[in-house]
Amino acid sequence: MNPKPPAIFLIGPTASGKTALAFELATRFPCDIISIDSAQVFRDMNIGTAKPDAATLARFPHRLIDLISPEERYSAAQFRNDALREMQAITTSGRIPLLVGGTMLYVKALREGLADLPPANAEVREQIDAEAATHGWPALHAELARLDPETAARLQPTDAQRIQRAVEVLRLSGRSLGSFFAEQKDNALPYRCLTLALVPGNRSILHQRIEQRFAAMLTAGLIEEMTILRQKYQLDAALPSMRCVGYRQVWEMQEGLIPRAELRDRGVFATRQFAKRQLTWLKSMADLQIVDPLSSATAVALFTAVDAHLKGF
Predict the structure, then answer these.
(1) Contact criterion met (CB below 8 Å) for 148 and 176
(2) DSSP string, the chain
(3) Do residues 247 and 70 lie in contact, with contact meaning Cβ atoms separated by under 8 Å?
(4) How far apart (Å, rounded) are the C-alpha atoms in residues 146 and 20?
(5) How far apart (Å, rounded) are the C-alpha atoms in residues 5 and 91?
(6) What is the pLDDT of residue 184?
(7) CA separation (Å) from 302 to 187, 193, 291?
(8) Mean pLDDT in runs of 10 for the chain (313 residues)?
(9) Which domains does the chain have, with CATH numbers?
(10) Is the pTM of this model over 0.90?
């Protein structure tokens, strides 16, 4: 018998069916849901984050959603601390943590711990942002490629938030991110974890789902939601909340940077790229049980895996 209490991860790309399957698991097993979603932490950002509605949340409460305003920032380190606290509370109550979402950085932080990186430095960040405003983020990505090619290879040339952090670490310490990760202490979770990864076997069907979902968000009032957010909060395009897929494209449309007629196509394309990055993350992770969410046997496969994992609990 493994003395560690059980925990279950259900992870996968956007539009792969995580939420519906999580509800099936929470109905069948004594599980409480913890969100692993860097967009759902923001209050009042509901439509574009596919946040469950009030009736659904009453039936299936989610921990770690609606934590902060869209004006604020939330780090992977904060998520790990909060998730560990919620997991402990669930375990103490005699139930099982079910962690559901697609923010793979959060998954990695929780499962493996975090490197002891230098803290953020406002002055250095302002300097980096000024350089990006003058020369563009691809230029800073090129600098990163010269000094830390391993990190640069994982980032898109326009991934402002992660490029900023990688360059900041270099300038503060003279060391690459990878060198810190190599020294990372063993921060294994004190749980017996089952990690179920939803990996669609047919990518074209996933793309269709993404297109349908983004169209549904627009119909449900995504543009109007953004208008309300901008009236209620002091927002700018550099905030993490406004870099979320969907919200970024609506922001650009409202700022006149893209025509209204292109909003849907741009939102779909950006979401497909996001899903591609999520799947790339999954390929790099170990100890996953892969399940095809598009298979008719998906639910049975999940139930069987969870049944086996919880034997003796």
Answers:
(1) yes
(2) ---SPEEEEEE--TTSSHHHHHHHHHHHSSEEEEEE-TTTTBTT--TTTT---HHHHHHS-EESSS-B-TTS---HHHHHHHHHHHHHHHHHTT-EEEEEE--HHHHHHHHH----PPPP-HHHHHHHHHHHHHH-HHHHHHHHHHH-HHHHHHS-TT-HHHHHHHHHHHHHHSS-HHHHHHT------SSEEEEEEE--S-HHHHHHHHHHHHHHHHHHTHHHHHHHHHHHS---TTSGGGGSTTHHHHHHHHTTSS-GGGHHHHHHHHHHHHHHHHHHHHHH-SS-EEE-TTSTTHHHHHHHHHHHHTTT-
(3) no
(4) 44
(5) 7
(6) 63
(7) 27, 14, 8
(8) 87 97 97 98 98 97 98 94 97 97 96 84 94 95 94 92 94 89 70 96 96 98 98 96 98 97 98 97 94 93 95 76
(9) 6-114+185-309 (3.40.50.300), 122-182 (1.10.20.140)
(10) no
